Structure formats: C-alpha cells, structure tokens
Amino acid sequence: MTSPSNRNSDDGLPDTLHQRWLEFVSQYGSEADCWEALFSATGGGKCQHCGSEDIDRAYGARVAKCRSCDNTTRLTAGTFFQNIRNPQAWFGAIWLFEHGEIANANQFHKLAKVAYSTAWEIYRKISLVVQNDMEAESDSVSLSSGLFARLFSKRSLETPAHVHPIEEQTEMEKSEWGAAQSDPSASPGAHGASPGMTQPGVPTPFLNELSGPAKEVNDCLSKEPISLEELCNLTKIPAGQLSAILVMLELDERALGLAGNKFVRSTPAVRATAAPRAVASPNVLNGFQPSTAEDIDSELMSPINVIVRFFKETFHGMARKYLQLYLALRWCYLARDRWQEGALLRACSQFGTVDSEDIRAYVTPPLVKVLPRF
C-alpha cells in the first residue's frame, strides 16, 4: 500500500505508485490486453441474442460472432464497460484498487495521462459498484454523516449558493427532520435518520419544540424502558421512520437507547447512571462495551478520527454529496480478502451500465454505512 512517507517523483506522485503503474502496464500494455483480461475474468462472454457461450472472438475484441445463431454481438453492450474510451485507464484504476493502491483523482490523471474529468468519472463509477456490494454486507454500521463534517470542504450540486460546503449537511438535516415531523407515512428518504453536526464536533439540537410524530414518540417515553416493537404498536408509525425519529431524539438528548433496543426518556440523572445503547454502535466498531455517555463519545470518535485522517491525507477533503462513495472506496482499498485480484473487475462487469446522470443523481444519505473492521 502506498505510504505517505514514500519519496515523491518530479510530478509529485509517490514512487511506489509509479512502480505499481509500470507493473500494470507491463501486464496490460494494450487495449486488447485489457479487454482480454475482462473476458477471461468473466468466462469469455455470451451471445446477447440467443445466450449461447459458443462464440467466435479474436483476441481482445469486444465484438464476437455467435456460432449458434450466426448473429454478431457486442460483449460490453449493456455493461459497466459500455462505450468507455481508453480502457487502459479504467482497467488500471481497477487494478490499483485490487492491489491495495489508492490515489486521488488528481494523482490518477497524472499517472494514467488522462484528463482530470476522466479520472474523476472513473473513480465515481467504480465507487458506485463498490457501494452496491457494501450495501449487502451484514456487519455494516450506520453512522450519521454529520460525524464526518470536518471533511466537507468541496462544493457540489447539492451545496447551497454563497455558503461554505458544510452547509450542505445542515440543509439535509433540516429537510429530513422536517419530513420526519410532518409526514408519518414518509420514509426517511430511503436514507435513514438525519442526526448530524453543523460544525465539527458540535451536536445540533433539531427543534426547541416537538410536533407531529416526533412529539407523539417523545410523549410515549418515560423512565420505564419501552421496546421499539411496543412503540411501533402504540404510535402506528412505520418501523423505519420510528427508528429515524428515535435516533434524532437521542442526539437531541430527549431519549436514551438502552441494551436490547429499548428506550427511556432522557434526563441528566438517567444519562449519568444508565448503560446506554450507542446510537452508532461503537461497541460493534471496536469491541468496546460502553458504560457511560462519555465513553460512547470517546470510543466512537476514535475510529471516526482514523477515517477522517485517511480522507484528509488522501483526498484533501470532499463534498458531502459523495461521502458514502468515498467510504466505499476506502473499504475496497483496505479489504484485501474481499477485493483481491479480479474481484473488482468481476463486480464491475456484473453491475450494468453507469452513466453521468447516475453520478449527478447520487446523494449520500443521512446515515452512512461503515464496515467495522475497516
């Protein structure tokens, strides 16, 4: 893996990154070599007309002739690799990730000698593929995107005009909280709850006065623990939205989650004596079972600080819009058993087409997924 201590070349890139790229080029020196690697990893392809795998294809060719139905088929049509130009850059980025090397888009555009916009597009599309696989991981932990607010230094289409990029987080929180209060039938945007921070390390109370479903849930809480299932039965609020409201009430210090997925009304005395359930499950992150609210804060922030430092050193900040995609790339970079050679290439080939509109439409949800081992 590339270390920050590596000596830099004249173009500012670490020498080890150059060495890895030369290693890739020595194996895949032509477009035909790249395409052949794809077809070898995916079984050689099949006819899009009849589904037969009995096809006639020249080395590295994307077009094949079916021996069964005699039709010509484009093997990359309808796939992640449809219409891509400069396959060596795309395959090179995939190869680097599979070998535990990571570079930001600015570094990769220099390394692969492509435009920065091309490097940026390659990274975003690959990260969408990895994110799709990340969703299926059963041991993922949900954290508020606001915990990563220190990283939000770049603008996106979601950033309000004439304000610092961090306001993108604030606007999202206002929108999600308003929806949770006003519409009992609304899902939390398919995004989960919206706890967060308006500036690094500063929790934000959502509203001074509760109304709607949030008030209804709050009124059901008392000093006696009540389960999520019981709250669902009492309030008739869908479980997903109820969980969102409870997380926000916890961060607003109106509710306290206990072991066993139970909740009580939060007071200073209760917070000082109870053994609460961590909203973001830090005990899952690092094997620590918290006993006080102070323990939760310190133990939760430790792994988050590691992630924040990694992104600052590697990507020098980001737009909130793409936080989850960056988290997916970090998982791909670190999870060597999962993303060994050929794994990412196969995942991309099975993903389907990704166009520029998919990238523009993507917005990180209020709750992001993090894999606890990484």
Share in β-strands? 5-15%
Radius of gyration, in angstroms, nearest whole number: 24 Å
User: Which structural category fits the helices and strands?
Assistant: mainly alpha
Strands of the largest sheet, in order across it? 1-2-3
- Count the strands? 10
CATH-level-2 architecture of one domain: Orthogonal Bundle
Going by CATH, the homologous superfamily of one domain would be Winged helix-like DNA-binding domain superfamily/Winged helix DNA-binding domain
Helices, by number, come to 15
CATH class of one domain: Mainly Alpha
What CATH calls the topology of one domain is: Arc Repressor Mutant, subunit A
Fold and architecture overview:
- The chain has 374 residues and is mainly α.
- 45% of the residues lie in helices and 9% in strands.
- The protein is elongated and about 70 Å long.
- It has a domain of 146 residues: Winged helix-like DNA-binding domain superfamily/Winged helix DNA-binding domain (Arc Repressor Mutant, subunit A), CATH 1.10.10.
- The N terminus is likely disordered.
- A hairpin with a 5-residue loop joins strand 2 and strand 3.
How would you briefly describe this protein structure?
The strands form four sheets. A three-stranded antiparallel sheet has the order 1-2-3, with no helix packed on it. Strands 7-9-8 form a three-stranded antiparallel sheet.
